Fold this protein.
Amino acid sequence: MLYYLIANLLMTTILFAVIMYYKYYGVIVTYFALAQVNQVTAVKNSVFSLMDPYFLFIFTDIVFFAVLLFKKKGDMDWKMKVNKPSSRKVALSIMTVSLIACLFNIVPNRASMNEIVKAEQMGILNYEAYMIFSNKDQEFVEPEKITQQTIYDIKNIKPSEQPILKGSAKGKNLIIIQMESLQNFVVNLKVEGQEITPNFNKLINENYYFNKFYQQVGQGNTSDAEYVVNSSLYIPPRGAATQMYADRELPSLPKLLKQHNYESATFHTNVVEFWNRGELYESLGFDHYYDAKFFGEEDTVFFGASDDVLYRKTVDKLVEMDAADNPFYAQVISMTAHHPYTMPDDKKLITLPERYEDTLVGDYLIAQNYADKALGEFVEDLKEKGLWEDSLIVIYGDHLGLPIYSLNSGELELMKEIYGRDYTYTDMINIPLVVINDGVTEGKVFEQIGGQVDLLPTIANLMDISLEDQIHFGQDIFNNEDNLLPQRYYLPTGSFLTSEELFLSGSGYDDGKHYSLSGSSSENGIATEEEFQRALELLQLSDSYVNSLPLKPDEVKNTD
């Protein structure tokens, strides 16, 4: 009984972890996520918010049998009767049949592309075992075959010979503002007359706005967005980029700008050890980072100083950097509007209708309203300090805020009310992008699609920085109408976006689903199997390229 309880507890804990992880990420957790265990205490509020009490019923049988096992009086006769040695031949036969049955579930379903479909076909525990024993080395493309022209050919694009806006921000400072959990649907959203993001709305009405811009993050969420934006490379197939790629000498935006005498810094109110950011910043070539040690514990929310503190102290540092002879690049990471969006009372600046109370959707809107207020004050500070007109400013959301899998039926109804239709995967990964170049940009909406991987080449064109010697997987979205955006992690491997739709892979291409960018779904759509193969090829090429990059000097030393 004791051994049974131990085995039962182990398997039930695995199943419980699967439920909890799926509730946020929409994927089946595997042993690779053990690298995240040290992050759990930092985001414990998010973890607890995902748990419905009825999930705990999964442990009911363990409690029942534990009571039987440890009850000492009244049941000794029963325990003696059942405590008889079993036949080893019978036990071995049962185990053999069970193993064969498991293999019959595992072997035929190994080729399935969609991780969720694969887990469903194999069975959860079989899938977990398969992921452990199938951890073979990935096949990489030979480095000499990875060229920029190869990437262009796979993406079916041809760089413009006379790109528009080229050099329009040459010599200016660069300020990138990465907004926590900001999805595109909040832009221009009003709830019973109340604007959720009035300051962001004003920015897009006066500058260049991309309404079909999409996240490309994975397990590392915010830190993955930092990696993708600064490198124009895709996230790894497993794990966070900060954990898998931070040992490499990564080509990056800070290093490109360094060639033009830019000083670079990144600002984030959490500790730099969270998500191994310190190692990532070193690999990307940032000159400075400012974390919790710089921002202190004033007005903390969740696990760092509030956005008010972030922007106030950041602008002082930017003024200091601007006083130097050379221009600067600053990436500012907002954080207060973080899941589960339970804001302190003094930061609840709007009152929503009763139907939004005690819902994730309502809390999310209140958090984004506060983040928008703080952003507006930062904008005014930049203008007052003379930084606005001398800077190229890029603002985008880092990743989704309302995963479909996290919403209950009532919350999905609220999203349906907001959208006027069902909330879909296309909506979930849609984040806003606004590009501000004072004296150049004006109120204009760009309809072409783009992803976070496209920001580096887009910025390079605006600042007239050559990418001739730098491999990049993104493209200048001002000068390319068509795009192919592979997705990983939040969507099954093999999923991708085109200018017309989102393709969600199944076991492969044939049983995949098609979602128009407007949200409707169908079994048949515009995305082709050839595009499906090209999206996979792009991911393999990116994985191969990063694997071919040299290790950082300290990593080489440790290896030696």
The chain is about 40% helix and 15% strand. The CA atoms of residues 94 and 294 lie 61 Å apart. The chain has a mean pLDDT of 89. Residues 360-384 form the longest helix (25 residues).
